[in-house]
């Protein structure tokens, strides 16, 4: 059917002109197709019926509220569901309960925000079509002023100031949804709590030679020798071996008691045998060089030097703190044992961190 078969009053051009929705140009040789203009604007029921508008407002608020509840469900699932629990879901079969709950709750939270925003725009925001001429890329002052005016007009037409229920529930949903991402930060690893302040050393733990894997007796440590030890029960096959040995590695030196200058060091030793952390307090390198005549130990990384006859204080290099000492004694069978944990954290820069 051609345009000549349509009554003139029903032509889009006539309707557009009647409703003032843009001028209609005439066809010519250069532009063979006439501009039909915009179709007449049809009012929605929400535009003419405040009760319908209120229903839409409540619907949008309900969707935002569902998003908030789903976000709370996401957090509750993350905290309360064991990571190894599985459930049967038809037709998926046996799946991880935590992953299923997180996916459902986060999906509902995001979908509800999107659905609420779409319903708000489709039913309550202005839907009048406006024709605007193309303009250069640069923005002259009058265009900027128009943009600001359009923004204010859009904010006014969105009714965000008047529809307080929508505004408040939307802000609530948008505020809670980011908490889902914050909760996921826990997957970076378990919370350290006080683990950085403690090692495997405890009262009654025997000192085991790192080379022979045998418990040490006082007679096994000769004067002037350097021995490396670990806590009894810590084996290289343990899953957490590297993590634990990085805190519990010990170096044992036997000095003549009269050569020990620090009173606490003497009290915490046994027959001149002193036990200090092997971890340098600069950047955590393992200390392994010992000068028998001076009783100094040297870190091979940055040459921090500690005096083991004087509380392992720093006498050279970038290390900022003395090495922590472990108080030792002997058990009923004559083996060297710890009388507690280190009284200060081992490792570099901990004092600045904690």
Attribute tags:
354 residues, alpha+beta, Rieske Iron-sulfur Protein, 2 domains, 5-stranded antiparallel β-sheet, 4-stranded antiparallel β-sheet, 10 helices, 35% helix, disordered N terminus
Terminal Cα span: 83 Å
Q: Are there runs of 5+ residues with pLDDT below 50, and where?
A: 1-23
* CATH topology-level fold name of the largest domain: Rieske Iron-sulfur Protein
The Rg value, from CA coordinates, equals 38 Å
CATH class (first level) name of the largest domain: Mainly Beta
The shape is elongated
Biggest β-sheet description: 5 strands, antiparallel
Named at the architecture level, the CATH assignment of the largest domain is 3-layer Sandwich
Region (Disordered): 1-42
Subcellular location: Cell membrane
GO molecular function: 2 iron, 2 sulfur cluster binding; metal ion binding; monooxygenase activity; oxidoreductase activity, acting on paired donors, with incorporation or reduction of molecular oxygen
Domain Rieske: 242-337
Structure description:
The chain is elongated and about 110 Å long. It has 354 residues and is an alpha+beta fold. 35% of the residues lie in helices and 14% in strands. The strands form four sheets. The chain has a five-stranded antiparallel sheet. Strands 7-8-9-10 form a four-stranded antiparallel sheet, with no helix packed on it. It has a two-stranded antiparallel sheet with strand order 1-2. The chain has ten helices and 13 strands. β12 (328-330) and β13 (336-338) form a beta hairpin.
